[in-house]
Amino acid sequence: MIHGEIHLHVRQYINGRWETSATTGVSANPSDTSEVVAEYARADRRQAEAAIRAATEAFPHWSHSTPQRRADVLDRIGAELLARKDELGLLLAREEGKTLPEAVAEVARAGQIFKFFAGEAIRGGAGGGGGENVASVRAGVQVDVTREPVGVVGLITPWNSPFVIPAWKIAPALAHGNSVVFKPAELVPACGWVLAEIISRAALPAGAFNLVMGSGREVGQALVDSALVDALSFTGSVANGERILQTAAARRAKVQLETGGKNALVVLADADLDRAVDCAVQGAYFSAGQRCTASSRLIVEAPVHDAFVAKLRQRLKALKIGHALERGIDIGPVADEERLAQNLAWVGIAREEGAEHVWGGEALERATRGHYMSPALFLAKPSHRIAREEVFGPLACVLRADDYDEALALCNDTPFGLCAGICTNSLKHAMHFRRHAVVGMTMVNLPTAGVDFHVPFGGRKGSGYGPREQGRHAAEFYTTVKTGYMLA
């Protein structure tokens, strides 16, 4: 069992064995930087390559396992995550800084994802992804279209959702018969380790799942470079995603990227303003704004612009910012000192460019030393950097639009295309927005941050590349199609 304030020592998991490394790193509690959450082994390139070889050797056995065996493995993992959600949520809150209720909910969602893909393993059939029998254009010929696992899959995940994002990559990879090398972000090694520890007891063959913790520069690059890694799924920054794509595509590896967003929430004059403010607060500021689906651009129709800003300012003033484990807290700390400095720098950039400061954007002191800041709100122009570049912190800006057409144009005026929301009582505008917003996901009268685990997740333009994640559509990435002909 893992309890608060316990200092963990976590290791690599390679070929069914726990291994130490030559160097170690430390993760600290962003709510109280004096508290060490974990010391973790930092893998080097040699260990990453050993994990890749182990996954390669395990692939033939695991890929030909029965659907029932794969389903049982995933169901066991999901059941343990759900049973331990309070305990593991506490660990997540200590290591990443989410408020405890958010953290517990994330662990529960990770468990639900594993259980969903347990069902997908059965529905997908022995070949790893289902198939179909098609009538041939030639007499006496039978045609079968089947799906088979891709092979060895490298999974590189971010720090902001250290249970749920690994879950929505690991679960479909294993469900469809692939072997896995998993590299979590260095900010959250304990979360990556405890997930691996649960998976290690789920009756997988040695090497089918491997954990390597370390730097992206060394461990991540080993996954990207290796000719033995058949597919790479990455969630993180645009710059790192582009580098991965260029290198992996050159050797014809399959690549899936989720690289952030600059998401808009449109508020029309006919909207319920209280609901719109709720959507804005939850979407832009909860989880300290550290979500790729955060609505950092609030595009408000002119007749309700001032009233919306006034209501939003009052809500921001009332939010409680503090230690992630403290009862009644709305927003915890940002993840680390570097992110806090970046967020405060963005506040300075907004001021320098002439954006009107409405509220917040200051470093805060609390009873424990942590990375706290007040949620920031600015009135901006479309040309301002805070209206164009991803901040990934508790900072949002309001853009004024004369009418719906201008609001939609502003929504689409971005190099990103992950998600977008609209608050309106007009069915006409809601339906038009869903069709014409150039994004992968739309929300109507809902926060942009908040998605289901059984349907596709992903974006367009600079927000993503390759097939969608989650739900049945995950098979598009984790399997490959084979067409077979037979003379009957």
Structure description:
The chain has 488 residues and is an alpha/beta fold. The chain has 2 domains: 8-259 and 463-487, Aldehyde Dehydrogenase, Chain A, domain 1 (3-Layer(aba) Sandwich), CATH 3.40.605.10; 264-444, Aldehyde Dehydrogenase, Chain A, domain 2, CATH 3.40.309.10. It has helices spanning 45-63, 67-83, 85-96, 100-124, 164-175, 189-200, 216-225, 238-250, 273-285, 302-318, 337-352, 404-412, 427-436, 475-478; strands spanning 8-10, 12-14, 17-19, 23-29, 32-42, 131-135, 141-149, 152-156, 179-183, 209-211, 231-235, 254-258, 264-267, 297-301, 356-359, 363-364, 372-373, 376-379, 395-401, 416-417, 419-423, 441-444, 460-461, 464-465, 479-487. The strands form 7 sheets. It has a 7-stranded mixed beta sheet with strand order 15-18-19-14-13-21-22, with helices on both faces. A 6-stranded mixed beta sheet has the order 10-9-8-11-12-24, sandwiched between helices. A hairpin with a 2-residue loop joins strand 4 and strand 5. The protein is globular and about 70 Å long. 55% of the residues are buried. The model has no long low-confidence stretch (mean pLDDT 96).
